[in-house]
Amino acid sequence: METKPKTLEELKQMRKKIRNVNEVHKERLSVLDKLALWITDHVGSMGFFIIIFIWTAFWLSWNIFAPASMRFDPTPAFVMWLFISNMIQIFLMPLIMIGQNLQSKHSEARAEADFEINQKAEREIETILQHLENQNVMIENQNKLILQILEKQKP
Questions:
Q1: What's the CA gap between 115 and 4, in Å, rounded?
Q2: What is the tens place of the pLDDT at every residue in 76-102?
Q3: CA atoms within 13 A on the CB side of 74
Q4: Is the CB of residue 75 less than 8 Å from the CB of residue 59?
Q5: Are 102 and 33 in contact (CB under 8 A)?
Q6: pTM
Q7: How far apart are CA 21 and CA 27, in angstroms?
Q8: Angle at 89 between CA 87 and CA 91, to 5 degrees
Q9: Which of 68, 90, 110, 136 gets the most CB atoms within 10 Å of its CB?
Q10: Which of 104, 102, 89 is nearest to 31 (CA)?
C-alpha cells in the first residue's frame, strides 16, 4: 500500500522551530559558570603557559643567582615557590573540571541539535523521494495513455 507523500504544509507543521543551541547554552549559564569557562579557556592557552614558565624561571633564577641577602626562597627547596604553585593548582583544578563539564554539556546539546536537524532532513528527503516516485508513476501512466491514443489513431 502506497502512502501519499506529505505536502509542503504538512512538512512545515511537523517542523520544530530551529533553535540556536549556542545562545540557549549561554542564557542558561550563571555568573560562576561563565567565570569557570573563562578560566578554563584561558588556563588552557599558550599565553597562560608562557606566563607560568616566565614566572617560574624568574623565581628560580632570582633565588639561585641573586646576591644572598636578596634571596627570599632558599635553594634547593624553594618552599614558598612550591607552596604558591600548589595553591594555584589546587584552586585551578576544580575550576577547570567545572569548565570542562560545562563545555561537555554544550557539546552534547550541539550534538542533539545536529541529530534533530538530521532527522528533519531525512523526513524531507523521504517526502521528496515519495513525490518523485509518484511523478514516475504519473509519467508512466501518461506514456501508456499516449501510446493507447497513438494506437487508436493508426489506420
A1: 26
A2: 889 999 999 999 999 989 988 988 899
A3: 0
A4: no
A5: yes
A6: 0.62
A7: 10
A8: 70
A9: 110
A10: 102
Residue given cell 541529530 in the structure block: 115
Q: Give whole-number Cα distances, 12 to 6, 8, 9, 123, in Å.
A: 10, 6, 5, 11
Give the residue from 79, 102, 82, 80 showing the smallest Cα distance to 28. 102
Supply the DSSP symbol for 76.
Answer: T
Positive or negative, the Cα torsion across 116, 117, 122, 123? positive
Task: List pLDDT tens digits, range 12-65.
Answer: 777 777 778 888 888 889 998 898 889 888 888 999 999 999 999 999 999 999
Quickly count helices (H) and strands (E) in the chain: 5, 0
| 3-class SS letters over 101-140 | HHHHHHHHHHHHHHHHHHHHHHHHHHHHHHHHHHHHHHHH
Distance CA(43)–CA(92), nearest Å, equals 8
